[in-house]
Write a structure and sequence with these properties.
There is one protein chain. This protein is mainly alpha-helical. Helix content is 76%, strand content 5%. It is built from eleven helices and three strands. Helix 6 (143-185) packs antiparallel against helix 8 (196-234).
Amino acid sequence: MKINSVSIRAMATIDEKHKPKNKRQAFLRLLEYIAPYKKAVAIGVISNLWVGLVVLVPPLIYGKSITDRVVLNLFNESADARWRLLLISTLAQILLYGSSSFMVWVRMKTMHILGERILVDIRKQVYSRLQALSISYFDSGQTGEIMSRVTNDSEVVEEFVTHAADTLISDTIRLAAMCVVMFYVSKTLAIISLLPVPIIFVLALTFSRKVRPIYRKVRERLAEINAKVQENLSGMRVIKAFAREDFEQTNFENETEAFYDMRVRAIRLWTRFFPSIDFQVRTASVVVWSVGAAMILHKVPGVTMGTLIIFTMYLGMFYEPVRSLATINDTIQRSLAAAERIFEVVDEQPQIQDADDAVDLPRIHGRVELDRFNFSYGGEEEVLTDF
């Protein structure tokens, strides 16, 4: 076999062109990992939705049945009828909460097992791609950094499946159902309750835009720390032989401090975002209480003490999924940042690829002759010329 005028070059392989162009593309690709498990996802969503809808019933029981009919006796019912209604209301709530606890168990078991399954699928896919890549990929990348994509980044993506995907769906449906009930009970109080929601979602979008690049840098810094530890442990004999302990210690501390700085930037954004949501929620609750009390004092038709109790209980539950969606947004942003790094590996193509009609080379005999053979690393200065 004769090789004429050949140059072999190791090329950098982590290419920015393979990054998902936007977070929507990365989000849709994450959903592809969930698609094969539609049954498990459906169980998770239905169980979570059941838990969310069950909590809508007790406020109606407390407000209309217990407060207005049993305690205040606004309908002038007999004592026996009121005792009977109290017993039925109590048993109904116990049954509802019992079914809710059962569905919580179903959801936790199903979604956590699904998350672990998808974590395995991601790691298998990434490792399979690494096996197919050219040697130049590993020449240009740090081993610890590559390991971080297989282990740490995939675990962050698993959080998206376990905590974010089904909650995102069920909380959205629960908010819609709660809005319907609140408008049915009192349109005025419902409108007041909804006033902070647009502001909260604008804040959430702003938070997403600012925090996602930071989370990506956090993942990169963590990968650099892993790479540093892996390389130093592998080369500890050389480090000690040349008395480089202090130098490597300084380098490691610098990497760790850089990781800390990125984490602090994310924390500062996070701590500005969530207290502002909490303030708006509490302010809306105070306004609803005040307006509701004023409506009772002015004997507005259809507004009773039971109505105010219903809204008081609903407000806490209404803003819980709003807060939850904001928290999930934080999880999603971290998952998308990690997913981008995973997809860079999955999308990477081997530098040398077989032709479509390639055939397996049988066992050969003879010798290899090199004629005017050139060799270089990464296209830089040639170490062999015209060999």
